Amino acid sequence: MSTHPHITHTPIRVRRNPNYVHNGTKSYVHLMRKWRFNPTIEAQESKYFQGKQLVQQGKFAPGVGGRATTVTRLKKKIGPSSEKGKEASQVGLVEAEDVQNDTLYLADVAVGTPPQIFSLDFDTGSADCWVWSTNLPKKTLQDNPGKAVYDPKKSSSFQTKDGATWNISYGDGSTAGGTVGTDVLTLGGLTIEAQAIELANNLSQSFIEGEGSGLLGLAFSNINTCRPDPVLTPVDMLIQQANIPKDSEIFTCKLGSWRDINDELDHGGSFYTFGFIHQPTLDFCGVLAANIFYTKINSSGGFWQFSSTSITVNGKVSKRPRSNVSIADTGTTLALLDDTSCYAIYRQIPGAKYSSSYQGFIFPASVTEKQLPVVSIDVGGKSFVIQKEDLGFADAGNGYIYGGIQSRGDLPLDILGDTFLKAHYVIFDVGNKRLGVVPRPEQKQNLSTPGNGSTVASQAEESQTAESQTSTSKKGFFSRLLGKNKKVEKQAEL
């Protein structure tokens, strides 16, 4: 790939959220909310499900005006049922406390002139770029003094997009929305002029909770929620403004794990790059750029979607329908597969079972590395292995681990989130509509119970996290970012 005057070849450091708490059920409910699917395993006993709800619209009073519409909402069963297989006696709406509203990975970006710095969730499963703003209700801002909040009045390069609005809604009825403007956005040394910035004017509680100050979508612009017209994502803007060369219209992702902070040479470091492939990481993986495996993706639905027609468990290949597809989603912590594939995996783990109480597959924490199966998933015709250490996601209590692979319910496609992505260096080739996957070697599989080792890793990063939120000057931001990114490059070169 050619060099380009705008590209600094500096990775954007991604840090693990020090306050993130692994909770299997809450993470699964978050995915039910995001992807709007219903459970298909022991559905009658499942606490969380999608149900119909009557909603009044328009101005009305009892018996006066308005109209009723039936919508689908994520609901929960309250209280035990009197008999196995029977519904619980009461049904209520899902509350913010039922859902994992925090994000595991955050990266700093700068918006405005002078730059205002925000820790955002980089998400290949969505296409909005939104931030907390001073347009939010005063009480919301007062109740969250630690949040970085974008103030358009303090940016000389901000321009309002008259009449433009945005709105994100989840299956539990929670929403985020507001107005739209344009401003300068700095992404890993690349400057994007007149990037559409979605300013939050209102946030449901589930959007308020969590460490970050917004989201940077890396899916395709056709699913952006801005109205009356969708706006271009930062990646599409980089391409349009020729900030990255024609033969390098890519971004790449390496997501590390808290498990690797003491066991691996890269110490679980994570980063994104925009406009180039990180050569030290390829060298570490022992792969030449010419030998990277790529598969074509179908972006018509707005996602990084590709064919996935088999899984392999301990060498036994299980064929799936030729029409089966998967999505690569950095905004999903787990991996969601069809029920048959889930059972094929967990039947090979001693003592594993499906628990309707946890609404997921769990297995004994005493299971050894040798007892865990080798699981690989087909990506466009080639199988890629999930690390054994990532088959466990969270402490489920009572000596059990909540699995990192779970059922996709009635969703018609797989979601390959961090459980899969952490094992690979992934190239998202926007220009050629293809996905590249490079397996990353590991010296050791760390089977520490999630929630213990992750706490240690978080504490090790707390000082860096605090530092990243202190400086708001342009000089301070770039010097700090350069120092962090050089550390990432040094780790990758080991």
TrEMBL record:
Q: Can you give the residue ranges of the Peptidase A1 domain?
A: 105-438
Q: Which PROSITE patterns match?
A: PEPTIDASE_A1
Its keywords, alphabetically, are: Aspartyl protease, Hydrolase, Protease
In which domain of life is the source organism classified? Answer: Eukaryota
Q: Which family does it belong to?
A: Belongs to the peptidase A1 family.
Q: Where is this region: Disordered?
A: 439-478
Matching Gene3D superfamilies: Acid Proteases
Biased-composition ranges, Polar residues, are 444-456
Composition bias type Low complexity, residue spans: 457-473
Q: Which GO terms describe its biological process?
A: proteolysis
Which source organism? Orbilia javanica
Catalytic positions are D123, D329
The protein's name is Peptidase A1 domain-containing protein
- SUPFAM superfamilies per UniProt: Acid proteases
Q: Name the InterPro entries on file.
A: Aspartic_peptidase_A1, Aspergillopepsin-like_cat_dom, PEPTIDASE_A1, Peptidase_aspartic_dom_sf
Recorded GO MF terms: aspartic-type endopeptidase activity
